[in-house]
Amino acid sequence: MADVTLEQLTKVYANGVVAVRGLDLHVDDGEFVVLVGPSGCGKTTALRMIAGLEEITSGRLLFGDRVVNDVSPKDRDAAMVFQNYALYPHLSVYDNIGFSLEMRRVPKADRDAKVRDAAEALGLTEMLDRKPRQLSGGQRQRVAMGRAIVREPSVFLMDEPLSNLDAKLRVQMRSEVLRVHRRLGVATLYVTHDQTEAMTMGDRVVVLRDGVLQQNAAPRELYQAPNNLFVATFIGSPSMNVYQGALERIDDGVAVVLGSQRLLLPASFLAEHPSLNAYLGRKLIVGLRPEHLTDPATGARPPEPGTTLVANVDLVEALGSEELAHFSIDAPLAQEGSKASRHVAAELLDGSTAPGFGSGIARLDPLTAIRSGDRATFAVQMHGMRFFDIESGEAI
Q: Taking CA atoms, which of 7, 137, 177, 354 is between 20 and 30 Å from 381?
């Protein structure tokens, strides 16, 4: 068993491309940490450096107190599960699971016990004589996991192991992966591009962009208190609604200006976020999660004065447990700010509505009477608002 420490880990390829830049991360023994981000963000490269499959350009990698930068992959005591299963097609499930043990010349009796123990844990006991071609995608992935389990590694690495499965099977396999993790009780790093997968599985989630760590936090903190606009819009499905807005002093306090509409910011919110006072009279980016926009008619109490937003409803998706209302307001969508802060600046968000108008999504109660084509009024949960600097994209 060992914890894993990355100190300023950097990968620069021969052509000058920086895949990972100064990554600092610590994974405790027994912790499940997920690396997530868009394609090309460096998450798989980071995992491959930990496994020893990519050379480290600079920085240090430690397993426990041991620096393993120059240790060969087979001597790092790390097991890796790949996206494509990488099973031997001519070998049975039994032989695939036990292959690494055979290569290490583990006695036959011990090897048999370990293989059968792993197979039982993964529900593969009845399939030990089958070949990979006779298995479903989920069963093949379990065989790949079994092959890693029998090594009893001190570090477990997974590179998008569920991405080749259909949506329903992915949900089922999440619990399988977590059950295996609890059984192993070792430091586990899991790479995915699926933010829902990341949020439901990780003890902590590490968000990467362009090889740079954006935020490292527990899922709930990541969702409720994103460090910057990139994290805010990447985490969450549907994504956070973000608009160009401003703060304005009015008689009753401070208003959030969104196009032609004004929302009254609670005094308690300002007290909790005193840095907003420096933005009075200035443009900024306003963010609202879809669940913070509701239908007043289905609420337990009427909304407070100054906390409603009028919008044109373009489409309502009825999903059974909820309805998603796609709307537009006369406030422009947030756009990328200063290029000087390229590693923390907001992603450019392309609107589907007319110039100067911002689209958005509200998550509504299934009993809502709001329908496509309506001019609707939404109640805004003001304490759910998030604000970002318009130039850097950093949270205020």
A: 354
